[in-house]
Amino acid sequence: MGGTRAFSAIAILSLLGALSVPPRRAVAEDARPAQAAIPRPPQVNPSAEERPAPPTHALLSEEVRPIDLATALRLAGVQNPELNVARQVVLEAVAARQLAAAHFLPSLNTGAGYDAHAGTLQQSNGNILSVNRSSVYVGAGSYAVAAGTVAIPGVVLQGNTAELLYGYLVSRQVVRQQEFAAEATRNDVLLRVALAYCELIRAEGRRLVWEETINDAKEVARITGQYARTGQGRQADADRARTELYRRQADLRKAEGEVLIASAQLCKLLNLDPSIRLHPTDAYAVPMPIVPEPIPLAELIAVALLRRPEMGERRTVVREALLALDGARALPFSPSVLVGFSSGGFGGGSNLVRPVFGGFGGRSDFDAIAYWTLRNLGVGNVALIRGATAATRVAQFQELAMLDQVRDEVAEAYASTHARFAEIGEVEEAVRSGMEGYRLDLERSRQGVPGEGLNPRPIEVLNSLNLLYRSRIEYLDAIVDYNQAHFRLYVALGQPPAAALARAAPMPDQKPPSAKPDNPSSHPPAPPTTAAPLPFGPSRDRR
Fold first, then answer.
1. Domain shared by 40 and 117, yes or no
2. Residues 115 and 71 reside in one and the same domain
3. Phi, psi (deg, nearest 5) at residue 471
4. Does pTM top 0.85 for this prediction?
5. Which of 409, 492, 495, 484 is nearest to 195 (CA)?
6. Each residue of 61-102: pLDDT tens digit?
7. 516: helix, coil or strand?
8. What is the C-alpha to C-alpha distance for residues 28 and 282, in angstroms, rounded to an integer?
């Protein structure tokens, strides 16, 4: 399908990127309530003229809310719960990163402590004393007892250097991971919104097709009934035409139910009341190529591997695991430090030294401690290293699995766009030939054919009508499936900017470019070609 419309591709790219460009027209704008048919039990040998018309009722209400694709994408970006949860997870990761960075700053403690002892104490030389003593400390820090330093320093920095450093580096990767995950969630949600909007277009288009088919089926039933009454046709043909009319009424009821279901599914994604019936503002179903052609599949896969947020998430997980492994290896060689400073007022006394409670004055304490730890005789450190190594390999294998998944999604969507594009052209010709065949058979039945006696066989019109409506439905499905395939391909590429996809396509009579670099803008783009869409409105379906 070489040379699909590049200007349409750029427009849709900016639509999903900025959520501001209105979409192409896809379904009839009117929201007229359809009339349903409830078949009655057959009467005993009534004529076709005497049979009552099928009663009708309105399944779809007249009250609708018009919506286009751009509005749906904007609402999804604001009101979808999954997107809001993903954004909050990013904020949570940012807060954890800030906390990890704050571990490099000391903590401040201030308070007061009172200690009182009554009874015996032992001196360092073994002498036993009976002492009643007490002391008070007030200032930066707390818990100063006897001759020891302040147990809770006023300014303290404590922790293992490897754990602090690598913990902060890991927290940075966690933030990047959650950002990529939020972007992937956004792409997935917007894709589901676009697909749901296409399904709403499909449902509305089918409803219009069935409404037009019912009008044609009523005309066929009228003609076959007239031939049966005049003896020019069989009563069985008239009954068959009447049966087909009832079946088309049932198909219309089913299509109306599909409209309500598609509207409810879109409301769910947009966090709207499902009792609201959404109606697309688009008037026609037309192919909407997003990714310009021609771009080889290998280049699209390369773009996807660079742009897909899932690949970025997997890469950050690998880096996170590698940093955790480096931290586990450095842990036995990194010291645990404690730096503390305290300053305050201290005083006290005992029954051995007068006064019993006095001697208050200022004091300050500074402590700097560093020590190395071999956890569990080194067995704990080995276990940590082995666990981090296994986690790193798991992350690497998950990255490979995601790479295969991305390549598969791009290749599948790429093949689907080409297959659906070819299908559009074939089914379009089927619709055209079906419309012409139905028109000729209908005129033949209305006017009769000289030389064929009293049997012009109007039932052939019914066969032509059945072929026509099936071709219409297949044509609508081919267009909607083509658009959905392009949406899937665009999201499979990671929603790259237009510059990543814009290419200069040489004309068929143009020589291959030489090895010397030139200006890409000098190559004219390939002429846009696509199947001419047939509208599904009642006034345009018939010739």
1. no
2. no
3. -65, -40
4. no
5. 484
6. 778 899 989 889 988 888 888 889 999 999 999 999 999 999
7. coil
8. 6
* Length, in residues, of the chain: 543
pLDDT tier for residue 178 given thresholds of 50, 70 and 90: very high
Please say whether the beta carbons of 287 and 421 come within 8 A. yes
Q: Which residue in 31, 17, 28, 26 sits closest to 73, CA to CA?
A: 17
Same domain, 348 and 284: no
Handedness of CA 187, 206, 29, 427 (dihedral sign): positive
Q: Which residue has the tokens 């104490």?
A: 121
Question: What residues contact 357, with CB distance under 8 A and at least 6 apart?
Answer: 134, 347, 348, 349
The whole domain housing 365 covers 110-153+336-371
Rounded CA-CA distance 256/56 in Å is 13
- Please tell me the total count of domains within the chain: 2
**Residue 135: strand, helix, or coil:** strand
The answer to whether residues 423 and 416 touch, using CB atoms and an 8 Å cutoff, is no
The reply to whether 74 and 35 lie within a common domain is: yes
Does one domain contain both 60 and 207?
yes
Residue 46 located in a structural domain? yes
Q: Does residue 139 fall inside a structural domain?
A: yes
Give 86's Cβ-side CA count (13 Å radius): 21
Sign of CA dihedral 256, 63, 200, 80: negative
Residues 207 and 342 in one domain: no
Question: 28, 99, 96, 40: which is closest to 66 by C-alpha?
Answer: 28
Instruction: Please return the burial class of 36, using the count of CB atoms within 10 Å of its CB with bins 0-12, 13-18 and 19+.
Output: middle
Position 47 scores a pLDDT of 43
